[in-house]
Write a structure and sequence with these properties.
This protein has 111 residues and is mainly β. It is built from no helices and 10 strands. The strands form 2 sheets. A 5-stranded mixed β-sheet has the order 3-1-10-5-6, with no helix packed on it. The protein has a 5-stranded antiparallel β-sheet with strand order 2-4-9-8-7, with no helix packed on it.
Amino acid sequence: MSLRTGVSAAKNEVEQSPQDLTAQEGEFITINCSYSIGINSLHWLQQHPGGGIVSLFMLSSEKKKNGRLIATINIQERHSSLHIAASQPRDSAIYICAVRHSALQAPGAHT
């Protein structure tokens, strides 16, 4: 099975590793995301080939679990990880780390 990673943020503010990963069925997989900006939230997204983007987790300060998937975040170290336990062929997808930064906005500005 093949996994690819992607990043949603301004250049050099978010780094995700590994960029490409090939895993055997049943393996434990970890995808890392580091960011250099202050954030309000971090999102882990998944996109299967030819499919739409699906939100897996939205994190702000806690660990979350959904079946075989676990997402962690360390705000102080500006790092998050997505763990996939007992990987399966259906896990073949692109995984995206997206951040919402915490910069103050000008009055009247909206995100």
